[in-house]
Amino acid sequence: MAMYDNDNTVRTSFDLDYISEYLQQAQWAELVELKKLIVELAAEKGRPISILDIGVGNARVPKRLSGIHEIWEMVSCYDGTDNAKACIELAEKEIASLGIGNKTFIHFFEATTLDQ
């Protein structure tokens, strides 16, 4: 069993009451840079881009991106992977509740086997 297959561990690891302020700031900084990159790549290609998220966790990133209509329109497909079934279940519930399943897909597998 993977470390994050315990449902309580998964929920606690994503609970803002348990995440340090520094980690929360780092996550927001990561999102700001990702938005810049999406805009740049979509403009360069002249079309929406595909994203592969290794370690999708609780679907925090697609949740935030889909909340910004202009950015989300620049994403054609968002594939998220994780090796913890509890994270997959959490991410799938979030994707369903957001209604973004038309271009957001969650996959269970180890990133080390990505080439297969």
Describe what this molecule looks like in 3D.
There is one protein chain. The chain has 116 residues and is α/β, with parallel strands linked by helices. It has one domain: 3-Layer(aba) Sandwich (Rossmann fold), CATH 3.40.50. The chain is built from five helices and three strands; from the N terminus they run ααβααβαβ. Strands 1-2-3 form a three-stranded parallel sheet.
Structural class: alpha/beta
Number of domains: 1
Mean pLDDT: 87
- Secondary-structure element sequence? HHEHHEHE
Distance between the termini: 22 Å
Short description:
With 116 residues, this protein is an alpha/beta fold. Helices cover 50% and strands 16% of the residues.
Map the helices and strands.
Layout: H1 7-14, H2 21-45, E1 49-54, H3 60-66, H4 69-72, E2 75-82, H5 85-98, E3 104-108
Parallel strand pairs: 1-2, 2-3
Keywords:
116 residues, alpha/beta, Rossmann fold, 5 helices
